[in-house]
């Protein structure tokens, strides 16, 4: 007789009835066991006895001979695809870890040694033991944010092949802001994503100093960075880019004293308050000199 040797197996395998010394032909397996493949028959349930395959001959001993089905777990297969959240485009270059419960993480890279998919952005892991796993993205494709929480995966008899489907990433935000750098008003910025290459905006700032005019944008306040003019294409964004307004003296305006030029380097106008303070300081110094002279005459 044949024993299914698993509480979850179903079906029937017809046995053989004969006499001691008869040659019985081993039957084909008629049982099914979800998540397992049939490996053959054995005279012991634990597989430590005599093994037989379909078509083998067995000389019947006296009494009843029981042959036990031998089962092997089907290894797990896990698949997923990395995509852009908005466009659905498949994204290459991500990296992951797969960690079994109470186990150590295994590193997985797109098109790496463990990835059997063979296509950019697609992943296929095979030969997985049964159990619970956590799949976590450790490096997102360029210009995208990684997922924020791990994905829980279970491999068991009913789930030997698990397809997670699309795992989507949002693009990493990036922006351009414009600094008046001594001017005033507002110049609208740009809100986009890492990797964008927007055009430099038209200047909307003004300068209180009528002898100052806009000279372009620069990545550094002192003008020692990269210069852009309206309509120039910026380098690919990596985060927040600040462009500082640059100001220059208008043609035909009288040159300011060196000290005042230094004060106005950033484009800030010389305000009446500043001029008044300078005049008051000069007047105070003159009064002090006059007092000393009068004191000297009376001495």
UniProtKB/TrEMBL annotation:
Residues 76-164 form the SpaA-like prealbumin fold domain. It is found in: Cell envelope. GO terms for cellular component: cell envelope. Coiled coil: none annotated. Pfam families: Flg_new, SpaA. Residues 1-21 are annotated as: Disordered. This is Listeria-Bacteroides repeat domain (List_Bact_rpt). It comes from Bifidobacterium breve.
């Amino acid at each position: 007789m044949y024993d299914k040797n698993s509480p979850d197996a179903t079906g029937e395998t017809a046995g053989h009835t004969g006499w001691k010394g008869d040659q019985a032909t081993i039957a084909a397996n008629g049982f099914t066991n979800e998540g397992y493949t049939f490996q053959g028959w054995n005279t012991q349930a634990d597989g430590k006895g005599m093994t037989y395959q379909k078509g083998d001959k067995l000389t019947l001993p006296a009494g009843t001979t029981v042959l036990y089905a031998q089962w092997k777990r089907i290894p797990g297969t896990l698949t997923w695809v990395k995509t852009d959240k908005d466009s659905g485009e498949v994204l290459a270059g991500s990296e992951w870890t797969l960690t079994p419960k109470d186990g150590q993480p295994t590193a997985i890279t797109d098109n790496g040694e463990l990835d059997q998919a063979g296509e950019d952005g697609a992943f296929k892991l095979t030969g997985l033991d049964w159990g619970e796993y956590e799949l976590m993205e450790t490096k997102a494709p360029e210009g995208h944010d990684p997922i924020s929480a791990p994905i829980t995966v279970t491999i068991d008899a009913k789930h030997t092949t698990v397809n997670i489907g699309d795992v989507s990433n949002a693009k990493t935000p990036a922006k351009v802001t414009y600094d008046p750098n001594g001017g005033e008003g507002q110049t609208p910025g740009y809100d986009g994503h890492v990797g964008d290459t927007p055009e430099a905006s038209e200047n909307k700032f003004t300068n209180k100093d009528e002898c100052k005019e806009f000279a372009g944008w620069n990545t550094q306040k002192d003008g020692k960075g990269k210069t852009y003019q309206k309509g120039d294409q910026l380098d690919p964004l990596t985060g927040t880019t600040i462009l500082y307004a640059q100001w220059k003296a208008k043609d035909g305006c009288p040159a300011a004293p060196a000290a005042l030029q230094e004060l106005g380097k950033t484009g800030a106008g010389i305000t009446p308050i500043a001029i008044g303070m300078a005049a008051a300081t000069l007047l105070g110094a003159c009064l002090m000199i006059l007092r000393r002279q009068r004191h000297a005459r009376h001495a």
